[in-house]
Amino acid sequence: MASEEAAEASLARLSSEQKKPDDDEENPEGGGETAALNGVVVSGKVKNNNLDVKVTESELETEEGKEEESTKESDSNILDVSSDYAREKHISIQRHLADLEKLADLKEDEKKPCPLCPEEKFKACYSHKLHRHLQNLHWKVSVEFEGYRMCICHLPCRPVKPNVVGDQTFSKMGAHYHCIICSATITRRTDMIGHINRHVNKGETESRFITVPAPKSHEVLKESATDVQVLPNYSTPQKTDSYFNPKMKLNRQLIFCALAVLAEERKPIECLDAFGATGIMGLQWAKHLRSSVKVTINDCNENSVTMIQENCHLNKMKVKLNAKEDDNDEAMGDGEENTDTIEVTKMDANVIMHLRSFDFIHLDPFGTSVNYLDSAFRNVRNLGIVSLTSTDISSLYAKAQHVALRHYGCNIVRTEYYKELAARIVIAAVTRAAARCNKGIEVLLAVALEHFVLVVVRVLRGPSPADDSAKKIRYLIHCQWCEERIFQKEGNMVEENPYQQLPCDCHGSMPGKTAVVLGPLWSGALFNTGFLRRMLFEAVQYGLDEAQPLLKTLVCEAECTTSKHFSTHSPYDENKQEECGVYIKTPNTSAESSLVHGKRKSDEVIRNAAKRQKPENSAEHPAFYYNIHRHSIKGMNMPKLNKFLNYLSEAGYRVSRTHFDPMGVRTNAPLAQFKTILMKYSTPTYAGGQAEGPLHLPEGVQAGEQAQAAADGKAEDAEFLEDKSGVAAAVFTKDYPTHCAAE
């Protein structure tokens, strides 16, 4: 009898607490949440979130001492079940207009209020007027997503800052939308559309974000025998967490070649990809170099870290989530034939570079990389390599000069050699960051193409290399009339007339100020010939077809020779040939090699190598280049570029093409002599003017010499275009500057 009385008492108490089963519909402003949490008892069942959980009689037939425990367990079960299912949507989110009208309970003879507007905004009215109101105001300006309409809501869900007028306070309620995914309230419709798109780009659909994970529909891309999964809009960095740009394939191949050269010097090396995104770069390192490298892929975004782990499993790699974890805690891939392990970390790039030391560090942030240079040079090992990719080309290419001044502390204007100027700006920032850590640098590679600026430097520890590198940061004097340029002389003394340093006489012949001071810039060499040749060998060995033409162009540019004279060995002394030829590991290699029989070189050997290289500095490539279109003579047809290179070479100047500009000529000839030779071998544009050729050409130039020079250049021009391993025409066409096309 006691147990039956207790059961009846519990039923009566539950029924008295839940008197209104339809509070969810009558009170759309928040009553639904209370009903969903507390539940409703109807005929022996508990109604919770449209889910019926039967309450059996055995649960009610308990003793008085266990009554409270049973009720607590039943409440916890109800909450657990409700958390596994989708929480209740806001009443403004409906599939059809008829569902929205059902909320209003339209009747012809009765006035009904709008379910999405307060009474002070829209008074109760008859059905025909309320129907037009729901259709024209709420339904037409809704946001659609997966069959649902997020209608505009005027209910007091989102209070606006109150306005105080005299002694009265008016709390104006603004119109807003309720997100179907995260229940956020957003005022503007365009902002709501962008908010939903960000959820979709991150893979956060309703089924994944609220209830259960949605089936993965990631696209799988393949590059250099490496598979990666990417999210939607993977090529737009502002709309996705795991950014993957297919246009940066050439950049990734160049970095891989640099790492492969370093892996031949010391084994194993610890390398870091500080901004992993999808992990494509670190996966290529581990997959091709295998035991020669210990790869660490880092990213501060949780979704990107998850994507990196999935891509490691996709490529059958082991994943080490934390350096302190044991081998038993490592996540294994699907296959066991590849025993390589990749460490995946989730932390800020500055933090991981401060905590650990690496032999190879690559920085590829979104935009400028100056915020990470101090951390990169803090713990990088001696004779290690730091590579960085800068994608803030708007500031580096002088489109946003104030941003360049803010980020790099450099004054810059748009010039014909703006790409090389950008590379020297980045190297100057790298040099200053390394010098703050008592380290010097040796520039191994500097590439500036359409989408990025890549700089690869070797780190030299010690205050002496730091001082030597810092001395190479100088200002540049640039003439705005003739595009002549020259680095300022070393020293702190103020010159009375800085214009005297320029080879041109524009200041004397033209009134006003004709020159500007740019910088500070890196004034040293941009390339290391021996390192580039070894990179070319690695590119051939691993079949990197896109990097081979560019590397051959860089080798010719570093040696300041044409592709016709390109050879496997350098035309310098025998010791230089051992360094610059196809990589052969010998004890007498230059400063690029950091190991002697598996051990690092002593400081004395490094100093001796630096002393041996001092006499060769005179053979460095000339700074900057000239654009042949920029200096062409009006009304004259200039010669073909390859022929013009031969003319400059015959005149006794060093000359080569450059990857910075498809129509650029890198030479040590002064601009005046450059223009003289260009005008000498130019022909009149119109046919009628050929008879008047001597009037346009300098004295002593005969037509027969021009014809003979043109005939000599035909074979060389054809050979240059047909050479597959030479300068790729695609690279030159891709990076053709707009101002050249305009002229």
UniProtKB/TrEMBL annotation:
Compositionally biased region (Acidic residues): 58-67
Region (Disordered): 1-80
Record field: catalytic activity: guanosine(27) in tRNA(Tyr) + 2 S-adenosyl-L-methionine = N(2)-dimethylguanosine(27) in tRNA(Tyr) + 2 S-adenosyl-L-homocysteine + 2 H(+)
Comp. bias (Low complexity): 1-15, 38-50
Keyword Amino-acid biosynthesis: no
Gene3D superfamilies recorded: N2,N2-dimethylguanosine tRNA methyltransferase, C-terminal domain, Vaccinia Virus protein VP39
Gene Ontology molecular function, alphabetical: tRNA (guanine) methyltransferase activity; tRNA binding; zinc ion binding
GO biological process: tRNA N2-guanine methylation
Highest taxon, organism lineage: Eukaryota
Protein name: tRNA (guanine(27)-N(2))-dimethyltransferase
Record organism: Aramus guarauna
Encoding gene per record: Trmt1l
